Amino acid sequence: MVDSANGDPISDIVGVVCTSSNNCWGVGRTRSGSIWHTLIVHWDGSAWALVTSPVTSGSDTNVLNGVACSAPNDCWAVGDHALANNLGFAQPVIEHWNGASWTLDNSLLTAPNQQDAVLNAVTCVGPNNCWAVGFGVVGNWTQTLVEHYDGTSWIVVTSANTSARESNTLNAITCTAANDCWAVGNHDDGTPVGGAAPQQSLTLHWDGTAWNVVASPNATTQGNVLTGVSCTSTSDCKAVGYYTIGLIWQTFVLHWNGSGWTQITSPNPNDDQDNRLFGVSCNSPNDCWAVGYFNAGENPFNVLAHTLALHWDGSAWTTVPSPNRENFQINFLNAITCLSSSECWAMGVSDTPNAITLAEHYLVLPRQLTSLGRDGDGVVTLVGAAAPGASIQIEATADLSTAFAPLTTVITNASGLFTLIDNDSAAMPK
């Protein structure tokens, strides 16, 4: 866990992206009263800091839901704003980073023919090719909303839906190329906005010409929601989310193999309570991370939310321990981005008694001894680093002429560090 920046007393990060180890962005929302404002934080390689972000109006609600960069000086953040004089209806908000500051992009602040519209995610193939997805209300149903940036302006692009009389929502998007993008979300069976209806998984594909609905499986007939997607090639994608059994949510993972989507078994740390995934990032077909939360409480009404991190090694998903902020009832990880197999950032929120941003850094360090010393009493102290949670066997010898012998085994902490104090060493180990 790494200290992260906050805006007003209540802050939440829902999107994160990195272009390098010393350049990451987290976006979300913050408020001190009843009005949410945009929240943007930046990592410079040593600390997270609050960065000024614009709003449509001080009296409007403004939130950011996703962020993407094509270069360090070219990033986009998307979300929505509710007009104070428009009965609370939401409309898209888009902001751009040019290397010096964030500014509102006014090329598209309203969604045509949609009385209520939200952008949930954004991705960029290049500086002149970005996509943003979400949903908008048309009549009695929500319909998918897809917008495209061509280097000059944002425009609404025709997108697919399961039906004009079924609610469709897009929550995440990713692209491997200009003619290969996936957007995922959920749709219902035709219940109007405001009604309760079973949700089914939704996957849309862009082939360079049009967006089309692609069949995707469901784990249950009660509720299936996809919240994140990541691809390493045209034939390898992972989509994550959650499905419901009765009142309990369980982790939900799908895999695209180039011809179809199939469900992959995923673990739930507490099978009897909620387990949800919100984001996923893949470095290769054999290396993916998914994050969310699970309820460590005894029942759905006694929520003790702990961070949840799952890893895919090419064969199975496994739960990997992730830290939680002490004295907070709720710890969520809402998003994750990976720079490589050895470095990822996950961000979210710690809540109750109050809400503050949460940042966690996965960093695999090479196994190394950083210091070795012996005091006047003969006590030897070794300090080193390796992967977080790694089991390291320390071997030593009193000189370089005799054979090495096992000294002990140590476990690195969440930051990948370990310290060994040996009170019984007869001589300084080599």
What descriptors fit this protein?
430 residues; mainly beta; four-stranded antiparallel beta sheet
Provide the gyration radius in Å. Answer: 24 Å
Oligomeric form of this entry?
single chain
Number of DSSP helical runs: 0
Helix content class? under 10%
Strand order within the widest sheet? 1-2-3-4
Question: What's the SSE blueprint?
Answer:
Blueprint: E1 10-20, E2 23-31, E3 37-43, E4 48-51, E5 61-71, E6 74-82, E7 90-97, E8 102-104, E9 116-126, E10 129-138, E11 141-149, E12 154-157, E13 168-177, E14 180-187, E15 200-206, E16 211-214, E17 224-233, E18 236-245, E19 248-256, E20 261-264, E21 275-284, E22 287-295, E23 305-312, E24 317-319, E25 330-340, E26 343-351, E27 356-363, E28 368-374, E29 380-385, E30 391-396, E31 405-411, E32 417-422
Antiparallel strand pairs: 1-2, 2-3, 3-4, 5-6, 6-7, 7-8, 9-10, 10-11, 11-12, 13-14, 14-15, 15-16, 17-18, 18-19, 19-20, 21-22, 22-23, 23-24, 25-26, 26-27, 28-29, 29-32, 30-31
Please give a structural write-up.
This protein is mostly beta strands. The strands form nine sheets. The protein has a four-stranded antiparallel β-sheet, with no helix packed on it. Strands 5-6-7-8 form a four-stranded antiparallel β-sheet, with no helix packed on it. The chain has no helices and 32 strands.
